[in-house]
Amino acid sequence: MDQNIQIHDKLFKLFIPSEYIQDEVQSIADKLMVDYADKNPIFLVVLNGAFMFAADLLKHYTDSCDITFTKLSSYVGTTSVGKVTKQMDILINVSNRHVIIVEDIVDTGLTIEALKLNLFELNPASVEICTLLFKPEAFKGTESPKYQGFVIPNKFVLGYGLDYDERGRNLKDLYQLKE
């Protein structure tokens, strides 16, 4: 099996196989089950990238919860442009509810910081971040995500929901840009 794939003009190498991803997703779900037992949290999934992670995560979260979605954008190609654009509003009342923002990846943290500021205006009981991937080298935010899967280097990755110009989201494994 070839460990490299071509997406548009870039070559990517296998980074994290799906079996490791699934083990990590289960581990994160287990922590959430303990921390949010009997709290009926709202999982706020950030589209498009987090859809695969969220689907697998919520299969393992068996307590009562609500699920809703938002869509934000801060990337063009392989680069974070530093400006967050909201493309879809939150369609559920979060007042006095525990909100868990589900992200595919937190790198600069700008997207999450903007979303958290918007959420706090809606008076939630609490807001925490749950991400599959975290890049501490790129992070410019004030608070690291409470629920982190893999801590990765500041390199571009795709697959398992993450894309390069809308391609590669459907891959079950994670791939890293080959330099």
How is the secondary structure organized here?
Layout lengths: L3 E4 L2 E7 L1 H18 L6 E6 L3 H10 L5 E11 L2 E10 L9 E9 L3 H11 L5 E9 L12 E5 L5 E2 L15 E4 L2
Parallel strand pairs: 3-4, 3-6, 6-7, 7-8
Antiparallel strand pairs: 1-2, 2-10, 4-5, 9-10
Helix pairs in contact: 1-2
Describe what you observe in this structure.
- The protein has 179 residues and is α/β, with parallel strands linked by helices.
- It has a single domain, classed as Rossmann fold (3-Layer(aba) Sandwich).
- It contains three helices and ten strands.
- It has helices at residues 18-35, 51-60, 110-120, and strands at 4-7, 10-16, 42-47, 66-76, 79-88, 98-106, 126-134, 147-151, 157-158, 174-177.
- The strands form two sheets. The protein has a six-stranded mixed beta sheet. It has a four-stranded antiparallel beta sheet with strand order 1-2-10-9.
- Helix 1 (18-35) crosses helix 2 (51-60).
- The mean pLDDT is 90.
